[in-house]
Amino acid sequence: MPPRKRAHSRISVVLLLVAALLSGTFLATNAQAAGGRQHWGEATGTGSGLNRVDLKGWAESQLKDDQARRTRPHPETTPTTRVSAAAHPVRTTTAATRQKALLAPADAAADATPTALVLYDTAGPYGQLGELYAMAAANLAGHFGTVTAKPVQQYTAGMIGSYSTVIYIGSTYYGGATPDAVPAAFYADASASAKPVIWMGANIWNMAGAVGVPQFTQKYGWDPTTSYYEDGGSIGDVTQVTYRGQTLTRTIPAGQDGGVLRPNVLTGPGYAAVTRLAEGLDSSNGHTFGWAVRSANLTYISEIPFSYVSETDRVIAFEDLLFDALAPATAERHRAMVRLEDISPDSDPTELRAMADYLYAQNIPYGINVIPVYTDPKGTYNNGVPQTITLAQRPQVVSALKYMLARGAVLMDHGYTHQYSNVNNPYNGVTGDDFEFYRAHIDAANNVVHDGPVAEDSALWAQTRVTSALTQFTLAGLPRPTLWTTPHYAGSAADYKVFGANFSARLERSLYFAGTLSGASADPNRFIGQFFPYVVKDVYGTKVLPENIGNYEPEAYNNHPARLPADLIASAKANLAVRDGVASFFYHPYYPVQPLKDTIDGIKALGYTFVSPAAL
Fold first, then answer.
1. Where is the composition biased (Basic and acidic residues) (predicted)?
2. How many CA atoms lie within 13 A of 206 on its CB side?
3. What is the model's pLDDT at position 15?
4. Of 107, 218, 371, 384, which is least packed with CB atoms within 10 Å of its CB?
5. What's the DSSP call for residue 48?
């Protein structure tokens, strides 16, 4: 990228960790604005998904196997025996009373420390998906208590009794070429227990077959053996899910949709009532169906909602459903949080003070993400002359930061230099524009390709960067930050552990690498990106604060639309579906105050209360 003259007014272009997997890469924006400096902010837009996983092949395989299952004879669904009301009281009580009774065991556990067991698939040609999805589920369950994650093959009889709830992720379609790897003991325990079981994705039909279809339909009121991913010969186009009064989006690239199971709910004598918790809409034919259904102790989610995720996505429904199993007594509460991003020694202190004055006048606490050293090693914005500036060398900026801290700000560390060496990584080597802990390049199709950790990457190297950053804050007379945000939301597994050892929490979206749960060496090129609607303790053992609605971005680039205050407000509205969630966003202080004001006013109008990052 050729050097460009730096202008006072900066155009911010946002790096997108895109959920859609195209050519094994995450996509990102990259464009030039005439006469102005580009500034690539942290990840936003559709910012969660999988890297270097063949989801197109997985989708094709799943649909092929499901079509084959549909052509095979299936067991009779009509109950052949009657079970007394005493044996199955769920059939003789109201839906509300039944759910209260069935969730009572979880209530008791929630009063102590809720525990979750996450079971995942590892078999078959797409077995690699299981661990990635399990990390996503474990991270979210980490909001509530302790989490144990195991391959489903390791389940043993009675294990369910040691946990408040069990989450099974059916990512491998068992049947056809891949034999069923789920132990019979799990099928039996899941059916016999009163403990909440959350089941998402494939193989629920195998459970019905294992325990007996009549017995399954009597207890649960629907028949998985006659439920399929197709409706009328096609998977259709499921574009939205309605949950708790909010319309959530579902956007899957053509050819990569593995489908959504349509539960065949049964009615009449002998069948338990089924509660449709979330409604899916197939836009191709207008049909609606239970995207998430609950009966007895089983909550079934018709797909695995961790791919192709956006700030208004249907994953929000799953994020809230975890409360039913792990903290059902949780009261409704909606908090919001804002941070000011990419502040460095090169920032304009007048702009910083203007932001501080507005937020202080509104009594809004906020975070300030500060990069302690600004460097432009190739002189991209300095007429070809290399330039490096520390905070101590910019007393006016330091004074503005202290002014902010005295008016409700919380100091956060945003890397050491927020760039890597003197190379394009991937843009120009300048602070705030480039990755610091991860290598990346721009391909011919204008995609940002994640290449893996930097060559020097190690726990020692990352610690050196962190120590150097903290030293610069001390030399500038600023307090030690206790919160961290990884530059461009990308580091290695080793890096994340170092950050966790030095800071009380990270405020960010994060990458989670294959091998983390299994104990194998982390695969630096296979990961899932994730963001959260509430505080979690993630699989790295670190407290992570949410950033889930993105940032203000007034320009559209590379087919990604601009992200205006109305878009952030819409994302906050969708997240009202989370009964105790946080709408968290960030804003670059080189933009005018008015868009920030519009965003905050809109989020407040939804009923959110702004809180400090330090309060979470």
1. 62-75
2. 21
3. 32
4. 384
5. B
Q: Dihedral of CA 487/489/494/500: which sign?
A: positive
Q: What tokens were used for 37?
A: 């400096």
Nearest alpha-carbon partner for 346 in 14, 589, 44: 589
Residue 79 and residue 97: Cα distance in Å, rounded? 24
Give CA separation, 426 vs 20, 21, 421, 434, 556, in Å: 20, 19, 11, 6, 20
How much is the CA Rg of the chain, to the nearest whole Å?
A: 25
The residues facing 468 across adjacent strands are none
- Eight-state DSSP code of residue 553: B
Distances (CA, A) of 336 to 333, 549, 557, 583, 607: 10, 10, 28, 5, 9
10-residue stretch averages of pLDDT, the chain, 616 residues long: 33 32 31 41 53 90 95 62 30 35 39 91 96 98 98 98 98 93 98 97 98 97 97 95 98 94 94 97 97 98 96 98 98 98 98 98 98 98 97 98 98 98 96 96 85 96 98 98 97 97 98 94 89 98 97 74 94 98 98 98 98 98
Name the one residue in this structure whose structure tokens are 């670059």: 588
> Nearest 5°: phi and psi at 465?
-65, -45
Nearest to 539 by CA among 6, 21, 141: 141
Omega of the bond leading into 426 within 30 degrees of 0 (cis): yes
The pLDDT assigned to 167 comes to: 98
The answer to whether 136 touches 182, Cβ cutoff 8 Å, is no
Q: Using the CB atoms, write b or e for 38-50: b if 16+ within 10 Å.
A: bbbbbbbbbbbbb
- Domains defined along the chain, listed by start: 113-326 (3.40.50), 340-508 (3.20.20)
Side-chain half-sphere of 32: how many Cα atoms within 13 Å? 10
C-beta separation of 536 from 142 below 8 A: yes
> Considering only CA atoms, which of 32, 24, 69, 20 is closest in space to residue 433?
32
CA distances from 18 to 15, 54, 308, 414, 534 (A): 9, 15, 7, 22, 21
pLDDT of residue 508: 97
Measure the CA–CA gap between 29 and 15, rounded to whole angstroms. Answer: 6
As a residue count, the chain comes to: 616
Query: Which residues in 490-514 are b (16+ Cβ under 10 Å) and which e?
Result: bbbbbbbbbbbebbebbbbbbbbbb
Contact call for residues 2 and 38 (beta carbons, < 8 A): no
Q: How is residue 435 written in tokens?
A: 């990755």
Pairwise CA distance, residues 253 & 21, whole Å:
9
d(CA 96, CA 92): 12
Residue pointed to by tokens 């006469």 = 35
Show the tokens assigned to 471.
């030293």
Quote the tokens at residue 301: 């989610």
Amino acid in the structure at residue 73: P
pLDDT the model gives residue 522: 81
Burial of 335 (0-12, 13-18, 19+ CB in 10 A): middle
- The DSSP output letter for 332 is P
